[in-house]
Structures are given as C-alpha cells and as structure tokens.
Amino acid sequence: MKQKALAALLYLFALMPFWFIYMISDVLYYIFYYIIRYRKNVVFDNLRNSFPEKSDEEIIKIAKKFYRFFPDMILECLKFKNISLAEVKKRITLVDEDELTRHLNQNRTVIAVTAHYANWEYGIHRLGAITEAPTLIVYKPLNNKTIDNVYNQVRSRFGAIMVPMKQIVRHLAKLRGKPSVSVFVADQAPLYSDADYFLQFLNQETLVYTGVERISKMTNGPVVFCHIGRKEKRGYYFCKFTTLIEDPSSYTDKEITHIHNAFTEKIIREEPQYWLWTHRRWKRKRRK
Prior knowledge:
The chain is an alpha/beta fold. Helices cover about 45% and strands about 20% of the residues. The chain has helices at about 1-15, 20-35, 40-50, 55-80, 85-90, 100-105, 120-125, 145-155, 170-175, 210-220, 255-270; strands at about 90-95, 110-115, 135-140, 160-165, 180-185, 195-200, 205-210, 225-230, 235-245.
C-alpha cells in the first residue's frame, strides 16, 4: 500500500511542467539556505576542508550556488516517473559517445564510472537507452525498502538494470562473453566492512571503494568515465565519455582507483557547485 501511494504521488508531481517545478525550486532555495538551513554545517565543513586555499567569501559563493542547484536536482528527479525518452534525450546531450560504444563493438565489458555530480539520475536514464547491450546500474540499497523499490522502478524505465552492489559479480558471470556496461557511482561513503583503502581526495584522507578496479581487472574491461555536467540553460545537461583505462591488466594495485578518483576530483574543482556537498563523504576515519 505504501509503495503504491508513493508511486501515485510521484506520478502526480511528474505531471507538473518544468517551468512550474523551477518556480517551486526557487522558493526551496530560500527555505533550504536561509530558513531550515538544511545541512549547512555539513556543506560548509565539506567546502572549507576541500578548499582550504579559498576565502570565506569564495566558500559562501560556492555554497549559495550549490543550494540554488540542489532543489533543481531533487525536483527534476521527481519528474522521472513519467518523463518520455524523447524528453530525456533532449535534455541530456551525449559527447564522445564512441568512447563507450567502440568497446561494446569489441564485445567487451565496460566499467563506467560517474559521481554524485550535476544530475546523475539523468545519466542513468540516458545510459539505458544508448545500447541494446545490458546496462547494469550498481547501487547501494536504501534502508527504506518502499522508497528503494519505487525509485528502482523509475530508474529502470528505459532499460537499465538495477543491481545491488554485492550482486554485481554474479550478474557479470551470467553475461560472460557478451558486451555489457556496469555503471558505478564511485564517490559514495563506504562502510568499514566493505572497504579498507584510504587515499587523498579533495585534500582529505578518504575511505574509498575499490570495486571499479577489482571488477575491471576481473573482466579485463575498460574503465570509462561518464562526466555528467550542467549546461547554461536550466534543466539541460551533457554526458561526456572519457576512457581512463584501456587495459586494466597493465596497471599496478590501486592505481586504477587513484586514476578515477583523481578524475572525479578534477571535475569537482572546475565547477564545485554541482557536487553533492550535503553528502557526509568523510564520516569514516582511519581506525587506530
């Protein structure tokens, strides 16, 4: 019953035109930033620790830009319940698509990496429609099963297959010998039980998943970064594909992990307002 009710509410909201949801978003900016101060301590701590070289004025400017964008991203995601594929294709442009498709044409398993940057949910919808090869979206299940089920139904509307992180090896074993894409959102905060490797990320010691590296070496699959960025026009994005790793077997232990995290950091530094600064990325510290 709860799942049906939530799905119905999402459907009703998704009927609203984009111009109207952006009016709501403008109001939410003031509510989030000035009234309820949603996770402002987390956002400002993250920004100051990530950019110690920036002045307070620069940090405030980035934070305000982030809070301007944040409600846009949330409300755009709620539109996905009934958005058409044609609308998705209009709103997210593919750049260097052949950096993905050439590997699939070689019958390879592509390990795609992205981040909680811009509107990564658009990327999930668009990636599922690029190729007929299976597109596996590797995700960490939510504790709330109702929300988890509803959102996974929405995310898989255009062919993407939602795969819990701990089941990805099993799924890839079934696809052995066939081309496929496995998409990892690699900047999540892992549990201690799931990761034990720290590296420097945005000037901070950061616990990271090494799954991208392990899966790419297991499948000998190229690592392709999917940079989802925002265009100037509100509600419009691009997805630029860059092959970071052609031959995983030629890299030393943890080198691939450093490469794709460094690439993510470079993107964040260029336009920091589009990263998810409310995310408690650094809550895991090295155990003594």
